[in-house]
Amino acid sequence: THTHTHQSNVTRHPLSVTERLFDFFGLCCCFFGSRMATTTDTTVGALLQEVQDATQRLQEQFAAHAQALDDRRQELAKAEAAFAEEEATERQRVRDDIAERRSELDRARASFDGERGDEVVTFPKKKVTLDVGGKRFTTSLATLRSARGSLLSAVFSGRYPLQEDDGAYFIDRDGRYFHHILSFLRSPEEFEAPDDVAERNALLKEAKFYRIDMGFEALPTPAQQQQQQQ
Questions:
Q1: At what angle are helices 178-186 and 197-209 packed, to 10 degrees?
Q2: Rounded to an integer, what distance in angstroms lies between the CA atom of residue 188 and that of residue 186?
Q3: Could you tell me the mean pLDDT of each successive run of 10 residues in the chain, 230 residues long?
């Protein structure tokens, strides 16, 4: 009996230090393994959530960009339609304006032809004598009618009643410059404007009265030149 008891005590002898260390190491491995597994699961779950959130944000941004692009396309389509409408309106306005101008021109031509055909005065002579401010000038009907649209062309067109006075048709204007008017009507290409500033400018005033474009401009007077220099 004693021997058996001794053997039992030997069997239950406490673990050695090495065995205890191995047991502790095993427990640590189990603990940390469990913690790592839990941590890994949590990390993966968090990453999956972040991916889902990022995907959602990208989808929202894509949808916003697509909507903005669609809105821009609609704005461009409206702008193109407005431009096309404005262009069509402007084209129509130009056509109407051209048609109106042509109509006015046709009416003016018809009126001119009609007036030219209805002569009130028949000039027995091709030669006409004018009394311009007391100065007498002799010229032809063709010369007086040569500048279309001028006052002389209208007066001597035959559409208006005229009366001779002492064998001449009187015009109440300054006769000092009328010879320039006749020279221009006879040969407009060869006409040369006077060099004298006062005479040149006075001639332009007379030409304006007769509604004749003589093709030159007024010159500044000495007083005007002095003012410009100052």
A1: 70
A2: 6
A3: 45 55 59 56 78 84 88 91 90 89 77 54 75 95 92 89 88 94 94 92 94 88 73
Number of Cβ atoms within 10 Å of the Cβ of 95: 10
List the structure tokens of 194: 């006077």
User: 36 to each of 24, 30, 44, 72, 143, how far by Cα in Å?
Assistant: 18, 10, 12, 53, 121
pLDDT at position 51? 80
For the chain, the C-alpha Rg in angstroms (whole number) is: 57
Taking phi over 0 as left and psi of -120 to 50 as alpha, with beta for the rest, 104 belongs to: alpha
pLDDT at 121: 56
pTM higher than 0.70 for the full model? no
**Residue-level pLDDT at 36:** 53
Looking at the DSSP bridge assignments, the partners of residue 137 are 130
Cβ pair 176, 135 in contact under 8 A: yes
Closest CA to 182 of 218, 142, 149, 219: 142
DSSP line for 147-180: STTSHHHHHTTSSS----BTTBEEE-S-GGGHHH
Cβ–Cβ < 8 Å for 218, 204:
yes
> pLDDT at position 137, please?
96
- How many residues can be counted in the chain? 230
